[in-house]
What does this fold into?
Amino acid sequence: MFKVVEYMEVKQVTEWKDTIDFLLDSKQSEFNQLGYKQVTKDEIWNCLYDKIWKGDIEKRLHEIVQDVLHLKAGTYMSYMTINSLQTNEDDIHASIEAVMSSEQEIEG
It folds into this structure.
C-alpha cells in the first residue's frame, strides 16, 4: 500500500496525492458516517489544497497525513459553503453582463 519513502523527503502536495489516496477514501467515509453523504475525495482534496495548504506548497508525507486526519467536517463544510457562494456570485455577474450586453446590442 505505502511505498517506502524517506521520512524527511519533501515534495509538492500534488506529488503526494496518489500516495494518500486511500487516506482520502477514509476521510470521505468518515464524513459519510457523520451524515455528509455527498462528499467526494476530490472535494476533500480541493478543500485541503485551497484552505489548509493554500496552494501547491512543499510538505513531508507525515505532514500531509496529519492535515488529512485533522480535517474537521466543519472546516470542510465552511469551505464548500464559501465555494458555493462564490460560484453563485460569479454566475450572477455573468448573467448580469449577458443581459447588459444584450440591451446594448438592442439599443445600438
In short: Residues 10-107 form one domain. Strands lie at 10-12, 58-60.
